[in-house]
From TrEMBL:
The keyword GTP-binding does not apply. PANTHER family: DIRIGENT PROTEIN, DIRIGENT PROTEIN 5. GO terms for biological process: phenylpropanoid biosynthetic process. This is Dirigent protein. GO terms for cellular component: apoplast.
Length: 189
């Protein structure tokens, strides 16, 4: 019984840890996020016209031989992006200069279904936050999906958590907006 209680205390202390370093307190709690934010991710794919001003992403690899042979999917198509992120849904006045950006790639990895994989950094350069969060994970075409926040730098030094993505708008094939609810469960506060 005593050893069970000791094991339980040990387990609870593993789940919720707070230490002080760099003048900030490291908080880890898997029940309660230590930081939460909602950001909108705007992706404007180059539409193959000669107007390049409004594009923040571009296909860099496509199509694969498998794609050509199947005629049906976009398997292997890879898109590189440097997208604006905003707190509200509206596009920012400048697509190139925003305080928060998403920089990375997504690639389509579904042979039959529309299924993607995302890997990118959210780069913060505002008075509120400086630093980066690195996110990656499977992005199936479900209403919501979770991807991992695998690390961070600057204000987000050693951060970890989960980001829930939800498709918020689609216009043609060139524009989509994602709502991204980021919850950190390990962070310095
Ligand atoms: C492409 O460029 C030509 C010549 O500058 C212009 O007339 C045309 O409107 C442009 N097309 C698009 C889609 O921007
Ligand atoms: C840029 O693209 C977005 C999304 O498609 C559109 O709403 C906006 O009007 C475009 N802006 C310009 C200047 O073409
Ligand atoms: C793919 O499309 C081409 C041209 O439209 C057609 O000739 C070919 O049979 C198609 N292949 C398959 C696997 O559907
Ligand atoms: C960060 O913001 C400052 C001030 O707005 C700006 O001068 C600087 O160029 C920005 N840095 C990057 C990498 O965007």
């Amino acid at each position: 019984m005593a050893s069970l209680i000791i094991a339980a205390i040990f387990f609870v202390s593993l789940l919720s840890t707070a230490t002080v370093a760099h003048g900030r307190r490291f908080v880890r709690s898997y029940d309660e996020p230590c930081k939460e934010m909602t950001l909108y991710f705007h992706d404007i794919l180059y539409d193959f016209s000669n107007s390049t001003a409004n594009s923040t992403s571009a296909v860099v690899a496509s199509p694969t031989a498998l794609l050509r042979a199947m005629n049906t999917t976009i398997f292997g198509t890879t898109v590189v992006f440097n997208d604006p992120m905003t707190e509200g849904k509206a596009l920012p006045p400048s697509l190139e200069e925003t305080e928060v950006r998403a920089q990375g790639l997504y690639l389509y990895d579904g042979k039959e279904a529309l299924n993607a994989w995302l890997a990118f950094s959210v780069v913060f350069n505002s008075t509120a936050h400086r630093g980066t969060l690195s996110l990656m994970g499977a992005d199936p075409s479900t209403a919501t999906r979770d991807i991992s926040v695998v690390g961070g730098t600057g204000d987000f030094f050693m951060a970890r958590g989960v980001a829930t993505l939800r498709g918020d708008a689609v216009e043609g094939f060139t524009y989509f907006r994602l709502q991204m609810d980021i919850k950190l469960y390990e962070c310095y506060v």
